[in-house]
Amino acid sequence: MMKKEEFLSLLNNKKAARNTAEISALKQMIEAYPYMQNAWALCLKGIDIDNDEAFESALKKTAIRTSDRALLFDYINTPEEIETAVASEQHSAVENTI
After folding, report:
1. How far is CA 95 from CA 81, 87, 90, 91, 92, in A?
2. Cα–Cα distance between 67 and 64 in angstroms, integer?
3. What is the pLDDT of residues 3-61, one digit of tens each?
4. Are 53 and 76 in contact, with CB atoms under 8 Å apart?
5. How far apart are CA 74 and CA 14, in angstroms?
6. Nearest C-alpha neighbor of 58 from the set 4, 68, 66, 79
7. What is the DSSP string of 5-31?
8. Contact 35/41 with Cβ under 8 angstroms?
9. Residue 48 and residue 56: Cα distance in Å, rounded?
10. Do the Cβ atoms of 77 and 86 come closer than 8 Å?
11. Which of 28, 62, 63, 77 could form a disulfide with 40 if both were Cys (CB 3.0 to 4.6 A apart)?
12. Distance between CA atoms of 69 and 75, rounded to whole angstroms?
């Protein structure tokens, strides 16, 4: 299971779990504490970043346990990812014009 300091670090920095070890540690935490909204959200974000097929199922389960779905939506669709997508689209457009 994930250590308290690791979980708080992820939570305070609003970073998603970046590797399978962190995601599996969050899943263990979810099994131990099934109503912990923050663990569900962090795990969901990690699954989303990995483009895992389990995202849709995890999204449904997380949405049920979340008190503010708008906040969950904002967390999953962070501006950082949007900026990255826009930058890659602009890069592709520049390559196409050259």
Report:
1. 21, 12, 9, 6, 5
2. 8
3. 888 888 888 877 767 788 888 999 999 999 999 999 999 999 888 888 888 999 999 99
4. no
5. 12
6. 66
7. HHHHHHHHHTPPP-SHHHHHHHHHHHH
8. no
9. 9
10. no
11. 62
12. 10
Backbone angles phi, psi at 11, to 5 degrees: -70, -45
* Locus of tokens 């900026």: 83
The confidence score (pLDDT) of residue 28 equals 94
Other C-beta atoms closer than 10 Å to the C-beta of 83 total: 10
Using DSSP's 3-state secondary structure scheme, residue 1 falls into coil
Q: Is 43 exposed, middle or buried (0-12, 13-18, 19+ CB in 10 A)?
A: buried
